[in-house]
Amino acid sequence: MKTIKMQVFATVTAIAVVFALSLSAHAQNASETLYKSKCAACHGADGAGSATGKKMGAHDFTTAEVQGMADAELSTIITNGKNKMPKYGASLKPEDIKGLVAYIRTFKK
Ligand code: HEC
User: Fold this and answer.
1) Which residues, in sequence order, are CB contacts of 94 under 8 Å at separation 6+?
2) What parts of the chain have a pLDDT lower than 50?
3) Which of 2, 30, 57, 106 has a CA-to-CA distance to 21 between 20 and 30 Å?
4) Are 93 and 25 in contact (CB under 8 A)?
């Protein structure tokens, strides 16, 4: 009896883990798509900044300068904009912005 319960528990746990992993992979893909369609024109597909973006004053996302900024600071800039950086608070949901901040973290070198 006990063995069967353990097996059921292990199976359910394994399914939950696989499900959670695929969900987070999905969220990362969604953020990547969003980044490429809305942000890459200025910030570059690699986060280092396009020629246009750099001219406007965008900073390289791979550097300690940007990676050293708190999540709250990054999401505030995305939400409210800053100088030539457009604001996205009206067009993106808070969870989209959270996903974009997580995606920006993947540029860390
Ligand atoms: C029209 C060009 C443009 C677009 C499009 C754009 N940004 Fe920016 N972004 C900038 C500029 C310019 C700055 C620098 C603002 C400053 O400090 O003066 C900036 C700053 C930032 C910063 C703060 C770090 C830094 O580089 O100073 C973050 C984070 C950021 N943008 C994220 C995003 C995200 C996410 C998107 C897409 C949803 C996006 N940006 C779209 C131009 C752009």
Assistant:
1) 75, 79
2) none
3) 2
4) no
- Say which CATH number the domain at 47 has: 1.10.760.10
Question: Measuring CA to CA, which residue among 41, 34, 40 is closest to residue 100?
Answer: 34
How far is residue 60's CA from residue 10's CA, in Å, rounded to a whole number?
45
- Which residue's CA is minimally distant from atom 34 of ligand 1? 39
Using a 10 angstrom Cβ sphere, with 0-12 exposed, 13-18 middle and 19 or more buried, the burial of residue 85 is middle
Q: What is the pLDDT of residues 28-54, one digit of tens each?
A: 899 999 999 999 999 999 999 999 999
Give the ligand 1 atom nearest the CA of 75. 29
Domain tally, the chain: 1
Domain that holds residue 53: 2-105
